[in-house]
From TrEMBL:
Keywords: Membrane, Transmembrane, Transmembrane helix. The chain crosses the membrane at residues 712-737. It comes from Streptomyces phaeofaciens. This is Membrane-associated oxidoreductase.
Length: 740
């Protein structure tokens, strides 16, 4: 035996040597005074120096390894298995080549294994180190097992694995570290398991694993706890990243509790069922080949970003359902989701700003911000937001379903969906917005359904200027808006209904504004009650206007309103004329529009009544002295020819005057004399009267006979009356043709 004795007996040395050759276990009694094995002796055995037979395996339990154990740049001829051993100094395995290394339950003041190469497994199971463990650049052909390891160090880092290459799994289950763990650019060919792992580095980085590559799944779950930032940005994980029931605490740090920006995961990212992040979770630009599942997870970072997933790409669903709670902003701007965004039952709390920001988000299926219905055994839970929900310019291939959701941002915008592109929008039943809903510029390829939706907490409850709805829009059956409803310059492909709606805006403002909108189909304005504010229908174009006088507001702005038909059993002509007066001022177009509709349906008499009513309002509307003259002139035209719309009334008036004239001029025949003795024929009072009344037609009786006495005045009166009636007829008919 070519080793000089230290404090160890000849017997212990011989036993250690023989056991190595046989490949059997050397167990040292903890009560024995002879526990020490020199580190250099152990190194010599492993290298087979001065040995007649090569060692098969070094297996020692309970030894105290004294001095330095240094096998730097050496080749170890056999596996090393040490159990419950204590090292005086840090083992040095730098650039060593080994078949298998197991240090189970051992204690050492640090360990060096820079560029270490192990053919099979490397294990520190249940061991503890009081200084840095450095395995940078190591290459392990099997698995790395750090189960139950406890690591601490006086410096900032306790474990360095930069560039580590592991051909099988890496197991950290139950590992506890006090300080930073660094594994930048490490590669693990199979699973990376951190179940029950505790990483403590409060105020700093607990795990720095930028650019790590995992060939299967990574697990940071079931009791995994990190006090300090976990940075896996740029990581590539072939399977899933499972963080369910994991805890990540790094509140107050700029980068957050979990930093995974630019990460690439080919399967799911799971942050559900008890997941807790105290500090932000950063998924900026992440690529997730499966789903992002956060149901039941809690993301706590008040006043800042709870989840940052801007420009992330998620191939399947993003789930934040029952039990999910985010205190802080969830940022999804520019995010692309191949499946659905399922947020029913989730809580998004960030009252000082946007609680959920999906500006420019693209979703391949549905966005669900409503109720979660788990089944008969559990009550439904609805989506809750405190702060603005932004879906500005989002593109949703199927539906935006907010039925049962509660959006709170009082006196501000609760749900901002400006410019959203979507199939159907569902805001029905228990939907409640305490703040404004903004659908301005949205493109809805199907339906807008708001039946039973409640809109409160803002001066403007609903704003949808420039919105396009290809099919019907239903704001009916219990729809309630306590503020204004602005739907200006919108387009509806199959009708707009307010049947049974409550429009409660007060304060002298418009309860409903549809100015400039185009509606193919029916516009139903039969609200549940009479709106307290005005209704603005200016420049609205609609196929059918369906209303009820019982719920007409006191003021309806009608200028430019164009409609093809009216409700068949709707208000009568008398009520319609009052409806036109509710416009507040004379507008010729609103009368002519109503008359046109009556004409199209064959109600010429009703059309004339409307046009006559228009002229009545016209002569009332002119101010000043000219207005007085116009009033009297209009009165005369109405009395004589119905403003030209009843021209045959002149014939009746002429007939009456002819009868009167015939009688009068018969009585006054003694005052009528021929102009010369050569006049042929006898005086005819009836023809004389008719000749006076018709200024254009000349029967010559007024030329052959002249009046004297009282007949002079009667002749003058009949002549003037004739001219007046003729003028009225010409002026009235001319005005009609001009208006047409």
């Amino acid at each position: 035996m070519p080793y000089e004795r230290h404090a160890l007996t000849e017997k212990i040395l011989k036993d250690a040597w023989d056991k190595a050759v046989d490949g059997t276990l050397l167990t040292i009694d903890p009560a024995s005074q002879e526990q020490e094995i020199p580190g250099d002796f152990l190194a010599q055995v492993l290298q087979g120096e001065k040995m007649e037979k090569a060692p098969q395996r070094v297996m020692i339990a309970g030894a105290h390894i004294t001095g330095g154990f240094d096998v730097k740049s050496s080749k170890l001829l056999c596996p090393l298995e040490l159990t419950d051993c204590v090292f005086d100094k840090s083992p040095n395995l730098d650039q060593a080549n080994a078949r298998n290394i197991t240090l189970k339950g051992c204690t050492f003041p640090g360990l060096r294994g820079w560029e270490l190469k192990v053919e099979h497994d490397f294990s520190l199971e249940d061991s503890s180190s009081s200084n840095l463990v450095d395995l940078c650049g190591a290459q392990i052909g099997g698995q790395v097992d750090l189960k139950g390891v406890t690591l601490s160090a006086p410096g900032p880092e306790v474990l360095k694995l930069n560039g580590l290459v592991v051909q099988r799994e890496m197991r950290w289950s139950g590992m506890t570290t006090h300080g930073q763990v660094t594994m930048i650019g490490a590669r693990v060919s199979k699973q990376f398991i951190c179940i029950g792992t505790t990483l403590v580095n409060a105020g700093g980085i607990a795990l720095l694993a930028q650019g790590i590559k995992v060939g299967s799944s990574a697990y940071m779950k079931s009791g995994f706890s990190a006090s300090g930032e976990v940075d896996i940005s740029g990581a590539e994980i072939t399977g899933r990243l499972d963080c369910r029931n994991g805890t990540f605490r790094s509140a107050g740090l700029e980068q957050g509790a979990l930093r995974a920006d630019g990460i690439h995961i080919e399967n799911d990212l799971i942050c559900e069922n008890g997941f807790l992040a105290e500090g932000g979770v950063n998924l900026l630009g992440a690529t997730i080949g499966g789903s992002l599942r956060c149901t039941g997870g809690r993301f706590i970072n008040p006043g800042s970003l709870a989840i940052r997933a801007a420009r992330a790409k998620i191939s399947q669903d993003f789930e934040c359902k029952r039990g999910f709670r985010a205190e802080g902003q969830v940022l999804l701007a520019g995010c692309k989701i191949g499946g659905s965004a399922k947020f029913q039952g989730g809580q998004f709390i960030h009252p000082t700003d946007s609680a959920l920001d999906g500006t420019g988000m693209e979703v391949g299926q549905n966005v669900v911000l409503g109720k979660d219905y788990p089944g008969e055994q559990m009550p439904a839970e609805g989506f809750i937001s405190e702060g603005e929900v932004k879906l500005v310019d989002a593109k949703i291939m199927q539906d935006l379903n907010c039925t049962g959701g509660r959006f709170s941002n009082s006196q501000r915008v609760a749900l901002n969906a400006q410019g959203v592109t979507v199939r159907d929008v569902l805001l029905e039943n228990d939907f409640c917005a305490d703040g404004m809903l903004d659908l301005s510029g949205s493109q809805i390829g199907g339906k807008l359904l708001c039946s039973g939706g409640q809109f409160t907490g803002s001066r403007v409850s609903l704003r949808a200027d420039g919105m396009t709805v290809q099919r019907e829009a239903q704001l009916d059956d219990g729809f309630r808006a306590e503020g204004k409803v602005h739907i200006r310059r919108a387009q509806f492909g199959a009708g707009l209904s307010f049947d049974g709606a409550f429009l409660a805006a007060v304060g002298g403002s418009n309860s409903l504004t549809l100015r400039g909108s185009s509606i193919k189909g029916r516009l139903n304005l039969v609200t549940r009650e009479k709106p307290p504010g005005a209704m603005d229908l200016r420049r609205v174009v609609v196929t059918e206007l369906y209303d009820d006088k019982a719920v007409w507001p006191d003021r309806i702005k009608l200028h430019g309103l164009v409609y093809e038909t009216l409700r068949e059993d709707g208000p009568k002509i008398k009520d319609r004329l009052e409806w036109l007066k509710s416009n507040g001022k004379y507008e010729p177009q609103i009368y002519r529009q109503l008359a046109k509709v009556y004409q199209v349906t064959g109600d010429e008499d009703l059309a004339r009544k409307v046009l006559i009513a228009e002229q009545d309002e016209r002569r009332k509307s002119r101010p000043g002295f000219h207005g007085v003259l116009a009033w009297w002139g209009g009165w005369f035209l109405k009395a004589t020819v119905g403003y030209g719309y009843n021209p045959f009334r002149v014939l009746m008036e002429l007939a009456v005057l002819e009868v009167i004239g015939g009688i009068v001029f018969s009585i006054l025949r003694n005052d009528i004399h021929p102009v010369s003795p050569h006049v042929v024929g006898d005086y005819q009072p009836w023809l004389y009267s008719l000749d006076l009344l018709l200024p254009v037609v000349n029967f010559r009786w007024s030329l052959w006979f002249y009046p004297t006495g009282a007949a002079v005045w009667w002749a003058a009166a009949f002549t003037a009356t004739g001219w007046a009636l003729a003028t009225a007829l010409v002026v009235g008919l001319g005005g009609v043709f001009k208006r047409k």
